[in-house]
Sequence to fold (842 residues):
Amino acid sequence: MRAGCARSRVPEEPARGAALGQGRKGGLKNHMEVVPRLRQRQNSTAAVGERDQEASFGKRPILLWLLRTRGYYELATPGGGAGHAPRGGSHTQSATSRPAPRGTPPPPSLHPRDPPSPTGACAAVRPRPFTLQPWSPAAKMAAPSVFWGAAVSYRLFLGGRVSLALRQGVWKAAAAELQILRLRHTTGVTAKKNVAALRRETYTVDFIKKQIEEFNIGKRHLANMMGEDPETFTQDDIDRAIAYLFPSGLFEKQARPIMKHPEQIFPKQRAIQWGEDGRPFHFLFYTGKQSYYSLMHEAYGKLLDVEKRQNQLQAKGLFSEKTKTKDLIGSRWLIKEELEEMLVEKLSDQDYAQFIRLLERLLTVECSAEEEEFVQRFRRSVTVQSRKQLIEPLQYDGQGMAFSTSEGKRKSAKAEAIVYEHGSGRIKVNGIDYLLYFPVTQDREQLMFPFHFLDRLGKHDVTCTVSGGGRSSQAGAIRLAMAKALCSFVTEEEVEWMRQAGLLTADPRVRERKKPGQEGARRKFTWKKR
Amino acid sequence: MAPAASVSRLLGAGVCAGPLRPRLLQSATPGRARPSGRTLASAATPAVREPEGSIDLNDRILNEPLKHSDFFNVKELFSVRSLFDARVHLGHKAGCRHRFMEPYIFGSRLDQDIIDLEQTAAHLWLALNFTAHVAYRKGIILFVGRNRQFSHLIETTARDCGEYAHTRYFKGGLLTNAPLLLGPKVRLPDLIIFLHTLNNVFEPHVAVRDAAKMQIPTVGIVDTNCNPCLITYPVPGNDDSPPSVHLFCRLFQTIINRAKQKRRHMEALYRLQGQEGPGARGGGPAHPPSLGAYPGDRSSPLPEESGSHACP
Fold:
């Protein structure tokens, strides 16, 4: 983590130490001592560090530009900057202490609750010309506009439902002049726990609309930057572009930068439920749970319709007792959370159970297409794991010889085997005869096992490729691959026998990690009485 | 006529329609800006003329129905015979009888209480008339009932009239703590109609007491096992048989739709007359709707005072 820039090591320890020491005391007053120290260090190593960083980004100029404008590291000359108070912040690291490409987007330099101060942010900067080299040969030389910069930058928050209303002002103001931001070294100042922020944020309709507009503009700019067509830039493309431009080493997927449509980010909220005269819009408004009860009302209405239709048919004598069994295996009912999300309303468990019971009752009676469609709205598909062994299809090579290909894995070894229908029992592993590739008898026995089990020892030729693992793992991987490939030449009963013998199951055992405080995975240190 | 006599007796006994009216007037029309002396003084001259004219118009629209005893022609909607055919007179067993329902009970046959339909008709007339007036003044009407057999019907009725229904579990502070449960500036119902006064465990519905607390007038179908005390316009009748409940729902739906239609007609009429100039006439009472039109109103602005007393 500390590789890369030379100057990162120098100010890191004392700065952090200072931060820790002073931050604990409520360190807002102490930051002034920290900042000058930083500047002195940076004076000497500024050129070197800069060059180092640029060298590491040489292949990714766009990233470099973005990092510069987003203020990952300081490039302003010392002395010219006004002392800018680092007002609280969630991070105690300075930008210089971590190499930028592996870091997350920088935290907003100002406290979220403070008003944006464009003058303060850009007080110490000097404008720097930059060149944007083409990322791909076909890319246009579009200089991304600052507006996009603002749009993208503030989109890149860490996953969760954070209030953007305050941050976006900061980012826009800061990036508007396309100048290099000065990163403030935030010490260990902890922000006061703001009780008001714990309340759920309400977003106005105008705010959401504005967010959507900005997202669309930002999407187009991103497409331009990546050299793609803005019209056909899908969400997958956006995700890939952001992952490329802002690679994050964080394990938690939700903590990585994302850029999604505002409707997926901001929780859905209810607008005001009544008009100017005070009359509510929905006829079940006074129940408190209008969406849920109207859904129940609708479902029950459909049930009554179906029963009425059946009664009419029965009266005419046309009623047929056939009950068609619907195939419900590949789908499941909506879970309570999904239903709550759909209705934008809180439900209790009993409410949910009641609703599902009503839908199931609707399914038991014979209903028309309309009712079926209504019920299907509340079912989600589920990937069904079939118990049947997947049998590879037979292929035919140039000579008309049938063969079957399959893959197998064991520990870290991966193998692919091609079993020919007619042969004399020759096995070639990576182009080498198996006798020479596996000198140990045990490994060759493993290779023999599938054929021996099916009494087809000298009847098939095998060509396989294997990589990774050790000798035993490779043998096991090839064995699995061969057994799977053999399924195509063999009856279903024999496939079932093979499955029961364990030939078709991948061995899930992997090396268990060593734990701290123990000598190995299981072995403990020698216990000494005294 | 006996119903008319009982109606006048009931009115004389202080079935409170009077004291509630001013409050209803205020609550039913919250959106309209009544200019007080302050606004009149401070508003500019051209702006003053318009609100004055419209308020005058509005006042006339609102006061017109009050000049007639049966402006919405409620009488022709039902008769004692139709109530009898709908089995409204059938009460519960004598053991379930509520003490306060004794005045409304005609007698008991084979231990089953029979409700006096003459009284029912009178009470029903009052209730429907009141409902019509509330609907005419664009009040919010809430249908409440907790019998699961008729829950769907009541909700459908409410939706078809353009009003509101609550036939589900009634949360405790819904009326008394409405700003917290429903929203900060919610408007409460101006009338609550109970199709069933009891809840699922045969206890008085919480909304009866809460409506009385919040001074919301109530109309309620009270069976022989119900307590009619806190209900403003009780209507003794059967609330358990399907034909009876269907009849009541139909009656309420019809009268509400009629009242709203009448309001639209009056507004159109007064707007036209306002455009034509002063000296406009008020519209007559509701005629039985043949095709939903009131031929007497627009075409011939003749004094319709005599028409109000003419029974169809």
Chain A has a mean pLDDT of 75. The two ends of chain A are 41 Å apart (CA to CA). Chain A touches chain B at residues 272-274, 276-280, 283-289, 293, 297, 300-301, 304 (CB under 8 Å).
